[in-house]
Amino acid sequence: MQLEQLREEIAATIGISAAEITEDANLVDLGLDSLGAMRLATAWNRRGIPLKFGDLIAAPTLSGWKAVLDAAAPAPEAAS
Q: 15: domain range?
């Protein structure tokens, strides 16, 4: 997932402008609650990114979540 897409999805969940989310800002301090984090985790799981809610909570920044999502995302299939 691209960083800007991630920023937009988080911003929509929190109800703030994406520009307010810097890479190192604490998402909880910006208004993200556990229900919002669960909604995002569920949506990403449905899109094929197997991650755990606890992994997101352990790294509550945009850059932290990007790393978690990158690690959990399935590798793109090689073209044959």
A: 3-72
